[in-house]
Amino acid sequence: ALTVPQVAVVPRDGFNTVMVLQPDQHVRQVRVEAGRRVGDRIEVRGELPRDARVVVAGAGFLNDGDLVRVGEAPAADASTTSAPGAAK
C-alpha cells in the first residue's frame, strides 16, 4: 500500500487531499482516501502515482495550481527516515 507522511494529508471541502508537486513547480490537489495509520505515516488510496512528490510542509496553505519553491530537506539522523519522493 502507498503511504505518505500524515502531515501531507489535508482535509478540504469534506475530502482528504494531498498536494502533488508537478515538474513545472506548481502543485496539483489530489483527493485521496485515508487508510491505516502507522507511526507518522498514513496509507492513502486514490489517483496518487507511486512516484509522486507530495508537499509535507505548509500543504494546508496551498491551492491547486500554486507555484512553489522546493527547499532542501534537512539531513535525517539515525532515528528518522524520509519517504522517497517526498518534498518539503
Descriptive report:
With 88 residues, the protein is an all-beta fold. It has a domain at 3-61: conserved putative lor/sdh protein from methanococcus maripaludis s2 fold (Beta Barrel), CATH 2.40.420.20. Helix content is 0%, strand content 38%. It contains no helices and six strands. It has strands at residues 3-5, 10-12, 15-21, 27-38, 41-46, 53-54. Strands 1, 2, 3, 4, 5 and 6 form a six-stranded antiparallel sheet that branches. Strand 2 (10-12) and strand 3 (15-21) form a beta hairpin. The radius of gyration is 12 Å and the shape is globular. Pfam families: RND-MFP_C (PF25967). Residues 1-59 form the Multidrug resistance protein MdtA-like C-terminal permuted SH3 domain. This is Efflux transporter periplasmic adaptor subunit.
